[in-house]
Amino acid sequence: MASDLNSDEIFDATLADLDQSIPGAQYIALPLDQFSIEGPNGSHHCLVLPPLGPCVSPRLWTRLEKDTAASLRKFAYQTTLALDFLHKNEICHGGNPEENQVKTETGEELPISNPRYLVYPADIIRLGNEYLTDEICVIDFGESFKFSSPPEDLGIPENYLPPEVLLECPNAIGPACDLWALGCSLFEIRQQIPLFYMIYDNDELIAEMVRFFGKLPEDWWAKWEAQEDWFDPDGKWLRGESKFSLEIALSKPREVLDMDENYKVVGKKSLETSEDEQKLMADLLYQLFKYDPDDRICTEEALRHEWFKL
Q1: Using omega within 30 degrees of 0 as the cis cutoff, is the peptide bond preceding 58 cis?
Q2: 10 Å Cβ neighbour count for 53?
Q3: How far is CA 142 from the centre of its chain?
Q4: Which positions, given as ranges, span the membrane (predicted)?
Q5: Of 20, 68, 179, 253, which sees the most CB atoms within 10 A?
Q6: Range scoring the smallest mean pLDDT among 107-116, 126-135, 249-258, 260-269
């Protein structure tokens, strides 16, 4: 739902006008219908989207019944293809519900602008595997924009932002931001954990990036005021253990235990990445995580990478 916007201003409502024969279009969530509601808080344009399954991370892997690694790579490929579709169109991606009555603590009447009840979203996590497909769907185009008209800032979570945006460099927002975010997404899909976490502030995020990818370009390094809190002038880590790389992050296995009703362990499931796959995926990610935005490989190049051919 979007307040005081018409359908032409909402990217979700205009995506259906794009050429749906281009590969990747099938992985974009297109509205089935749209309508407007007039209320005390203005005009709200509403989109009706198809029912979708759970997010592809962080625990979807525990439900995959076939080759888990192959399935996750397939989801990663589909995600890249969906972004390729958007970029070819010069767009950046930047049962019954329960109802509870809403009351004030004092029992007083609510202002007319307040809702009379809240509708909880359907608990998609509990959806049975028989209702799930092996295809992803990209949603939420509220921060999308055309290549030709980038916004002044991005409203996406900081842990998906590239360093040039975190450092507030001029003209930083554009397609290359999507490519950095794609790298974060591919890691999260395959490993089922984020590469960077939301608990970090901007300086901690940049410090993690330097540990993964090396010292920032000199002009960025000088611009980053907190760099001396984390590194020496040569970019050497000052806080204990220094071994840190994508390869190490990709090598860490994940494991969940199956328990019966008495909390007795009856089995376990592991998610691992082979050494060969670690090397290939790290190679792809390093190309998406180039500091110079112009050096990051485009989606079309990424789709040809050997990691997707495993």
Answers
A1: yes
A2: 17
A3: 13
A4: none
A5: 179
A6: 107-116
Q: How far is CA 33 from CA 12, 29, 69, 243, 292, in A?
A: 11, 12, 36, 52, 41
pLDDT at 103 over 80: no
The answer to whether 73 touches 310, Cβ cutoff 8 Å, is yes
Of the candidates 143, 147, 148, 179, the residue with the CA atom closest to the CA atom of residue 162: 179
Q: What pLDDT score was predicted for residue 100?
A: 44
Question: Distance between CA atoms of 41 and 203, rounded to whole angstroms?
Answer: 38
List the one residue out of 24, 75, 35 whose CA is nearest residue 53: 75
Q: Which of 17, 15, 8 has the alpha carbon at shortest distance from 91?
A: 15
Q: Residue 11 and residue 95: Cα distance in Å, rounded?
A: 29
The DSSP-derived string for 85-130 is HHHHTTEE------EEE---TT-PPPPTTS-SEEEPPP-GGG--GG
- Domains of the chain, earliest start first: 2-94+126-309 (1.10.510.10)
Residues 6+ apart with CB under 8 A from 219: none
C-alpha to C-alpha distance for 55 and 132, rounded to whole angstroms:
11
The alpha carbon dihedral of 220, 225, 233, 207 has a sign of negative
* pTM (2 d.p.): 0.88
